[in-house]
Amino acid sequence: MKVITEQQLQDTNSGKKVVVALFTQEHCFPCGCMKTAMGKVEESLKRPDVLEFVELPTEQNENISESLTIEYSPTMIIFYEGKELARTERAITVKEIKNAIANTIAENKIDF
Description:
By secondary structure, the chain is an alpha/beta fold. Helix content is 40%, strand content 25%.
């Protein structure tokens, strides 16, 4: 999972990929757990043509954190075509991340 900036998120969101963005804070133990879990999900799915995993540290990306109302860390947001489709505001397991992605894709009828 690559660490990106607000501008890079906007660029990434302009395409036809499902973007799974993790908003973190530096000294946040649950954020570290969530990064590990997301890394495992990214490795198991390996669909870079249609699915991208990114991390945005909130301290370095305060504008987007405010505009998206990121109040908790970690926060996972699933985007498609620049629109927020789903949000989780806590650390979740590998299985829960996979389920969130699958449910979001199914509910929004995204070709995957």
